[in-house]
Write a structure and sequence with these properties.
- The chain has helices spanning 2-30, 69-81, 92-102, 105-113, 117-132, 147-150, 179-194, 200-203, 206-213, 235-238, 247-250, and strands at 36-37, 41-42, 57-61, 66-67, 86-90, 134-137, 141-143, 157-161, 171-174, 220-222, 227-229.
- The chain has a single domain (2-250), classed as Spore Coat Polysaccharide Biosynthesis Protein SpsA, Chain A (Alpha-Beta Complex), CATH 3.90.550.
- The strands form three sheets. Strands 2-5-3-6-9-8-10 form a seven-stranded mixed beta sheet.
- It is an alpha/beta fold.
Length: 279
């Protein structure tokens, strides 16, 4: 019965999104410059009633917190679906500062050498979950069901599997210090150091997650029972000014990894707050 309810919820969300996209197209046409602000921190809308090992925090990032109506409605919908969760939005400077202050100069150097925003976000999401735990969701991802229902009290992580078959990284959930996430971060850092891959997807993205998490026993759910991308959004809504900013296009004319970046001694972290990661 629970599975049937979750499938029904998924279909309802999909129908709602398709209807609302008509309004979003009209909004972009009539008010092309109108933007809405996603706050840096949003407290839970309701109090939780039971403990969970995975913290009730949703982490998100984007190249800007000034978004179109489509993306903002997506954000508000997720808040409604996860009322007991705190939502934290981190911009580029926040992500940069977090890694600089919590990890070694070597890790920060690898992060700093990335030239495509999505690749930086790929590494940041794994590291922030490793330190704080919680749930990571892409800014265009919409919950299909409440995480109170699909995250069990004793659960240590959750990955989702889309139709293509590989585990993906647009939704991730974990307790702090999860060894699987440590291994994913290690592999991403190694890939950046080797600089031999031409695709963000392979260097920092789902290919890494699937290779590491897919090889060990972890909690996995079908994507449509947990969270789906594009329910309320499209690339033209997320990148209204320049679709070339999307990583799949950016990597065609920009190297993923910048060459010869030296981190100054003032940026180095003599004793990193997190020592679980090694490259």
């Amino acid at each position: 019965m629970k599975s049937l309810g979750r499938r029904a919820s998924t279909r309802c969300v999909q129908l709602l999104g398709n209807i609302l996209k008509i309004a979003f197209y009209l909004d972009i046409w009539l008010r092309p410059g109108k933007r809405y602000t996603i706050p840096a921190n949003a407290a839970p809308l309701a109090r939780s009633t039971s403990p969970k090992r995975i913290p009730r925090i949703v982490w998100q990032t984007n190249y800007t917190n000034k978004v179109t109506l489509s993306v903002y409605v997506n954000y508000r919908f997720n808040r409604w679906m996860a009322p007991t969760y705190e939502f934290r939005f981190c911009g580029d400077e926040d992500c940069d500062r977090f890694i600089r202050e919590n990890f070694s100069a070597e890790i920060y150097d690898c992060y700093s050498r990335l030239q495509i925003g999505a690749a930086k976000a790929d590494l940041w999401r794994v590291l922030v979950l490793l330190v704080y735990g919680g749930v990571y969701m892409d800014i265009d991802a919409a919950l299909s069901w409440s995480p109170e229902a699909f995250l069990n009290p004793d659960q240590t992580e959750l990955f989702v599997r889309p139709p293509e078959g590989m585990l993906t990284n647009y939704f991730l959930a974990s307790v702090p210090g999860n060894a699987v996430f440590k291994a994913i971060a290690d592999k991403i850092v190694a890939n950046i150091g080797a600089d031999s891959l031409a695709s963000v997807y392979d260097m920092t993205g789902p290919t890494v997650v699937d290779a590491i998490a897919g090889a060990v026993p972890v909690y996995v759910e079908r994507y449509n029972l947990v969270c789906r991308q594009g329910q309320f959004t499209k690339k033209s809504f997320q990148y209204p000014n320049n679709r070339k900013d999307h990583w799949s296009i950016a990597q065609q004319h920009t190297r993923i990894v910048r060459k010869h970046v030296v981190v100054s001694s003032s940026d180095a972290v003599a004793e990193p707050a997190v020592t679980a990661i090694s490259s």
